[in-house]
Structure formats: structure tokens, C-alpha cells
Design brief:
The protein folds into 2 domains: 156 residues, P-loop containing nucleotide triphosphate hydrolases (Rossmann fold); 64 residues, no CATH class. The strands form 2 sheets. The chain has a 6-stranded mixed sheet with strand order 6-7-8-3-9-10, sandwiched between helices. It contains 10 helices and 10 strands. It is an alpha/beta fold and 237 residues long.
Length: 237
């Protein structure tokens, strides 16, 4: 097996005097969709913030062969570690097209940006039709598509998606599941952070279960979905 694209060792993080993550170890290989699942308050978003260097942390974070624990958020972003935040956080008064261009603001090549625009509009043909519409005027599902497309415009090596399914209709979630698989097929590795465990384990290759800041289960998505303890805790079985 090749070296992991992302690997953490003994990762600890929190806020002021409040520890949240405790000795988290996870590994993501190139070309995988990996689910990080757990209930509300388990520490999932804190982990993403630590990986993005939005908060400080202890332990070690290696991304694409480089230790990134001392880097600034804009530096890890430029390396290809890109986060799609919970709640989309679009620029509501800007158009869809302008939001997508904001995702590419650190890229220098106009031809590369143009090629990326073609790819994301092919992935999300509905956005192509609405490219001149203000982002704030769209439905929740359309806004989530726009947020994913904006993340892809940054040319990520690892796309970290926080609560993609939150508040969306099942038919929209199904559409986005297909998009995730296509993104993976195009060579983008995905870390999918979800409270909806059933959805996440349907689309992922492997998964980690986070409880009160610690990883308590890991394995293939199928093995986790078949785990009686996971079924009782998250599926109500």
C-alpha cells in the first residue's frame, strides 16, 4: 500500500481550556471516500478545523508527505487540503459563477481555471443554468451543489465535506451521492464528515466512528454498517 495522503497521530485539539479531540489517529489513502461519522458534539467539525489549521492542535498531521501542523490555513489550502464547511457559507449576494471563481482565487493559470469551470458545470448542469443567479436566491440543495463546486474549483487533493446531507431532501442527497462517486473517479480523495451515519456508510469506502473526541471504531464501510453496536447506536435496530 502506498503512503497515506493524510495521516494523523495522537491528534489532540480543543478550545481554550476545553479539550475536544483525544489521540485521534486516522489514515486516508489516495482515491478513497472515507466517512467520519458520529453524533452531534462528537468532535467531527473540530477535527476538520484542526486539519485545516483553523485551530491549533497537538500530535502530528501529515498531508501528501509533509508535516503540516505548523502551517497557516492558507498554506494547507494551497497544498490541496480543501474544506467545504457546514452550512455552505456562500457569498449570498454574488452569483453562482462568482462564487465558483472565489474557490479558485489562489490559482494563477486562467486556462486551468477555465478547465475547472467546465468540469464543475458538467458535474452540476443545474448550476450551469443558474450561473448568473445570486447564490442566496437558490434552494438548500442548489446551494450545497454550489459549495461543493466551489471546493472543487480549488483543485483539491483532499476534499473535506462537513455535513453535506444536513437539511436536504432525500432525492437531493441521492444526487449528491452520485456526484461524490464521480468526484472520486476523477481522482479527488474525499473525507465525508456526517451525522447521518446510514448515508455516509452507503457512499464511503471506509469509515471511522468518533465518540466524545476519540475514534472508537474503524473499518470498511460495509463492516461498520453491519456492526451490531453501530446498528443499535445509530440505526435504531
Amino acid at each position: 500500500m502506498s503512503a497515506a495522503l493524510l495521516h494523523t497521530r495522537a491528534l489532540c485539539a480543543g478550545y481554550s481550556e476545553m479539550p475536544v479531540l483525544r489521540d485521534v489517529e486516522l489514515s486516508i489513502e489516495q482515491g478513497e471516500i472515507v466517512a467520519l461519522v458520529g453524533s452531534n458534539g462528537a468532535g467531527k467539525t473540530t477535527l476538520l478545523r484542526a486539519l485545516s489549521r483553523l485551530i491549533g492542535s497537538g500530535g502530528r498531521i501529515e498531508f501528501d508527505g509533509q508535516e503540516i501542523g505548523a502551517l497557516a490555513p492558507e498554506q494547507v489550502f494551497s497544498l490541496g487540503l480543501v474544506q467545504v464547511p457546514e452550512g455552505r457559507q456562500l457569498f449570498d449576494r454574488m452569483t453562482v459563477h462568482e462564487n465558483l471563481l472565489m474557490g479558485a482565487y489562489r490559482r494563477a493559470s486562467r486556462s486551468d481555471i477555465g478547465a475547472s469551470l467546465d468540469r464543475v458545470y458538467a458535474l452540476f448542469p443545474h448550476l450551469a443554468k443558474r450561473r448568473t443567479h445570486r447564490a442566496g436566491s437558490m434552494s438548500g440543495g442548489e446551494q450545497q451543489m454550489c459549495a461543493l463546486a466551489r471546493g472543487l474549483m480549488a483543485a483539491p487533493k483532499l476534499l473535506m465535506i462537513d455535513e453535506m446531507s444536513l437539511g436536504l431532501a432525500p432525492v437531493v442527497v441521492d444526487q449528491l451521492s452520485d456526484v461524490l462517486l464521480e468526484i472520486r473517479n476523477q481522482g479527488v480523495t474525499v473525507l465525508l464528515v456526517e451525522q447521518d451515519v446510514f448515508f455516509a456508510l452507503q457512499v464511503a469506502d471506509r469509515g471511522y466512528v468518533l465518540e466524545t473526541g476519540s475514534v472508537v471504531r474503524e473499518g470498511t464501510a460495509r463492516s461498520l454498517a453491519d456492526d451490531p453496536q453501530i446498528q443499535r447506536a445509530y440505526f435504531g435496530l
